[in-house]
Design brief:
globular; Rossmann fold; 373 residues; nine-stranded mixed β-sheet; 19 strands; 2 domains; 12 helices; alpha/beta
Length: 373
């Protein structure tokens, strides 16, 4: 029980799509409906802008966010006039966007709403703290793979993927598995250097990024000499690419077997990269003896799949679908997380997973490269 005058911190879950039309908004709406059926109050916000009625690329209809009375929404002021839901402003945040200041509002009349939230992690953290004052039972943060970095402040993630990203189920499943692994690396225990001893003298190298082979070569010139004690720790605080990792492995040579590579928190690691190539490079480093760690784990707790994809024919898009059960089965075989098709199955079980009432791991394979990291 919480002490008098306090309340338990609300769990925040980011929901991101791997591409447009992979079912992110459909997933959010399924969770909203299931929460309403259970009497669970929700908070809703997003990274950037979402909730439009028509996709601005394909011209096909998009689902909008339906909000029951009592929902707490953090969104930009200019979106309030576009909502059919009744909204009462509770507080201002001082965070500005292209659509005006982000405000926290409560839904007084059920209806549709648009989300236009902050674009930076520090601002998202502030918004989540403001929403805590209204004590929602759960906060959902709407996002996308190409703007995932701000999600570094949430407690867990749900990945919405589907045929719009890749219509071949096997290829899509392999990418989903790579993303699950990259966002759930083992946690690092990095000793901080003492005030009188540089990090390099303790066998630890801190680098800004591994974006290019040139940046890696520049960082490698600062690698502590062979005389330093124990393992070499390379801590990367910025962006990482497959090419950068492979160049680092080449430059370290045999010393790679005694190296611990510490990578940024998962949402920052995977933003803007090709996940399968990045994961393959890390697997190869692990096979050579390296340990791969992260500064903070924000795991994917579940995956949703969407068989829909927009097919381009004669310069126009039309809706199409792959086999739904085949797609779900392929992804379920590839990842050790619950995999849902919320159109066929609804959002009740997914909501239970998010709340921790269902096992996060559906199976455990005998040994994978991830186990050896």
């Amino acid at each position: 029980m919480s002490p008098p005058g306090t309340h338990r911190r609300t769990r925040s879950i980011g929901i991101f799509g791997t591409a447009k039309n992979t079912g992110k908004t459909t997933t959010v709406n399924a969770l909203i409906r299931s929460a309403a059926a259970q009497g669970l109050s929700l908070g809703l916000t997003g990274i950037g802008y979402d909730g439009e009625a028509v996709d601005n690329v394909t011209g096909l209809p998009k689902p909008r966010l339906w909000c029951p009375a009592g929902t707490v929404v953090a969104t930009a002021r200019r979106t309030l006039e576009l909502a059919t839901a009744g909204l009462e402003i509770l507080s201002e945040t001082g965070i500005t966007t292209a659509l005006g200041e982000v405000v926290v509002a409560r839904v007084t009349r059920p209806g549709l709403a648009l989300l236009a939230g902050p674009n930076r992690g520090t601002d998202l953290r502030q918004v989540l703290e403001r929403m805590q004052a209204s004590q929602p039972g759960l906060v959902l943060v709407d996002g996308a793979l190409n703007r995932l970095s701000p999600m570094a402040v949430v407690d867990g993630l749900v990945m919405a993927t589907g045929a719009a990203r890749q219509p071949d189920p096997g290829t899509l499943a392999a990418e989903a598995a790579a993303l699950v692994h990259l966002l759930d690396l083992p946690l690092a225990r990095v000793p901080r250097p003492g005030p009188e001893q540089p990090a390099e003298e303790q066998g630890r190298l801190v680098v800004g990024s591994l974006l290019t082979p040139e940046a890696v070569a520049q960082a490698a010139r600062r690698v502590p000499g062979e005389g330093t004690r124990g393992r070499l720790t390379v801590e990367v605080r910025g962006a990482v690419t497959e090419a950068g990792l492979r160049e680092l492995a080449r430059l370290l040579g045999a010393r790679l077997a005694r190296t611990t590579l510490v990578l940024p928190v998962g949402p920052r690691l995977v933003a803007g990269v090709e996940p399968r190539g990045l994961w393959t490079a890390l697997e190869e480093m692990a096979a050579a003896g390296a340990r791969v760690r992260t500064t903070r784990r924000i795991p994917i707790v579940a995956v949703t799949v969407n068989p829909f994809f927009p097919r381009l024919e004669e310069e126009r898009y039309r809706p199409d679908w792959v086999a739904a059960r085949e797609l779900q089965a392929a992804v379920a075989r590839a990842v050790d997380r619950p995999v849902h098709d919320v159109v066929r199955q609804g959002g009740a079980r997914l909501l239970e997973v998010i709340q921790g009432r269902k096992n996060l791991y559906t199976r455990k394979s005998p040994e994978t490269a991830k186990d050896r990291l």
